[in-house]
Structure formats: C-alpha cells, structure tokens
C-alpha cells in the first residue's frame, strides 16, 4: 500500500512541487518546455 494516498500526493505536488514536503530537496525544477496541463486537477 502507498504511504500517501494519490490525492494527498497530488495536493502536495501543487503546494510543494513534490509528493511530500520532505522530498523537495530531491526534485529538480521543470525544464522550460515542460508545463503542467492547464486542465490537470488533483
């Protein structure tokens, strides 16, 4: 079973840019040609 439910991880992604706050140090900034789908919703 996943440690974080999918919806919680998606909400964290919106807030922190990672699945959880503690993981932000391991996440790179998105490349210029990579943008979130404007229709994406957690």
UniProtKB/TrEMBL annotation:
Domain spans labelled Cysteine-rich CPCC: 6-33
Organism: Paenibacillus solisilvae
Domain of life: Bacteria
Protein name per UniProt: CPCC family cysteine-rich protein
